[in-house]
Every structure is written in C-alpha cells, then in structure tokens.
Amino acid sequence: MSRLRRRCERxxxxxxxxxxxxxxxxxxxxxxxxxRPLTLQPMPGLSAGAPCGLWISxxxxxxxxxxxxxxxxxxxxxxxxxxxxxxxxxxTGIDAGPEVSDGAVGRLAxxxxxxxxxxxLGRASYTTAQEREAETLASLIRARSTPGxxxxxxxxxxxxxxxxxxxxxx
Length: 170
Known about the structure:
Blueprint: H1 2-12, H2 23-34, E1 38-42, E2 53-58, E3 61-66, H3 72-88, H4 98-101, H5 104-108, E4 119-122, H6 129-143, H7 158-165
Helix pairs in contact: 1-6, 3-6
C-alpha cells in the first residue's frame, strides 16, 4: 500500500491542486496539463446497470460522465476517480461492460462516432490494480486541499461534514 501511495504522490507532483478545492479549476488545470479539452458531463441514471462514472477518450478530447443523483461529495469523488485514470495513463485492462459499449456511448455522447474512441474506462469495482490506483489517487487529490464551499458554507465540524456527504440540507 505504501508503494502505491508513493507512486500516486509522484503522479501528482506536477499537477497543482487548488486550495480550497474546486473541481472545475482542477479539471481545467488537468486539461491544460494534458493539452486537450476535458468535458465533465452529468448523466442522470448512469449508474443504473452501468458504472457510476465513465471516462471516454478520443484522439482530440476527454469526456467524463458521472451520475449526479448522489451527494455532491460522492459525485466529485466519482469524477476525481476518472480523472485519476487519466493522470495515471490507464488505457487498457478495464472493461466498462456491455451496458456501456453496446449503445450507451450513443446515449452519452450522440455526436461522438464510436469508432473514434481510444479508451472507455468505467468505474464499476475496485478489483484491478488500476482501479485501486485510481481510487487512491482520487483520495490523495482531495486530501491535498481543504473542502470548497458546500452550498455556500464550509463544513466546520464533523456533523457538518456528515450532512454534506449525505446531501442533507442544513
């Protein structure tokens, strides 16, 4: 585990993490670092029979789809997990499954020619080394900064953080 953490820390060495954390700023920084556009796209119902997050890479851009029908922090973590696959250079070894490859691409990105897709990585489980690495890296990214405002406030105590995770209005 310590080897994995050190590897993930090295991957983050040249990528600044905003403090307080802002997913849009971090995504723009990563897009600039990679030299290609990055689109984050909420997709309600994505996790119904499919991964709750999905990275689709084409020769000129990256697309991350995530299920927004969860708490803000969980949706953010889903996106960070997919971004961590990018940072780690993962391109093979993860099968998004037939739910994704057999028609979901057309639903997710109707203007995207499926023949141009270089990579589809779906967040469905943590059974592979790549999934463990992406999960660890996503957690490290978030741990490098303080939480950004949650619905206009920053959680000040444990109860506030729990309410934010559960998407409970305060």
